[in-house]
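Entry, Tuesday afternoon. Goal for today is a structural model of the target with coenzyme A bound, before we commit to ordering more compound. Inputs were pasted exactly as handed over by J.K., no edits. I checked the ligand SMILES twice against the vendor sheet because last time a stereocentre got dropped in transcription.
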Amino acid sequence: MILETPRLILRPFRGKDVERFAELMANRDFMRFSLGPYTREQTQGVLQKFFSWTQAGLPSQFAVIFRRNNELIGYCGFLHQEVDGRSEIEIGYRLHPDYWNRGLASEAAQAVRSHAFRDLSLPKVISLIHPDNIASRRVAEKNGMKIERETVFRGFPTLVFAITREQWLAEGGAG
Ligand SMILES: CC(C)(COP(=O)(O)OP(=O)(O)OC[C@H]1O[C@@H](n2cnc3c(N)ncnc32)[C@H](O)[C@@H]1OP(=O)(O)O)[C@@H](O)C(=O)NCCC(=O)NCCS
């Protein structure tokens, strides 16, 4: 499945993305509010996880391609998380800092949310966000999400932003 927005193409990751993806995952800013920069081996593990979800027929992450230069600039898509003992589907996103503050993460996240409800009929999606991550909170808000609760996830204080398919439909199921 490929998602298209005015400035972006969201397509499944491929094996040969590993070089560029490892470069992104080694960048301190790209990895803000996470576990810090990843080695190439760790990044390979992440890609394997994305591929295994796809092979199992589960929604997975998309590679975010900036149309203007055809660059892989980050990821946006689905992650399968266990939060407080419950299985949840998260929309997660990271972009290279050169591409921040142009509305691109919001554009990508909205396309992924609409895909979740329109094409996959998922009942609910969440985003797990550190309270200090203001940019990510804005992306979630613009994605129609509301704070459901605060929890601790992998040892970090975390806001659980959420939107259900019913809420999305009630807002007109747009975008
Ligand atoms: C979070 C992230 C994906 C946002 O990407 P982006 O393309 O810059 O986001 P957008 O341009 O779509 O929107 C960002 C919003 O946050 C605001 N914002 C950005 N940086 C901000 C900051 N430091 N302080 C306050 N607001 C900020 C922008 O003004 C914008 O809000 P607006 O539309 O009301 O003006 C990007 O910063 C990133 O990759 N960060 C590192 C990884 C990360 O934190 N991922 C999320 C983990 S939950």
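The helical segments are 18-25, 40-55, 104-118, 134-142, 165-170.
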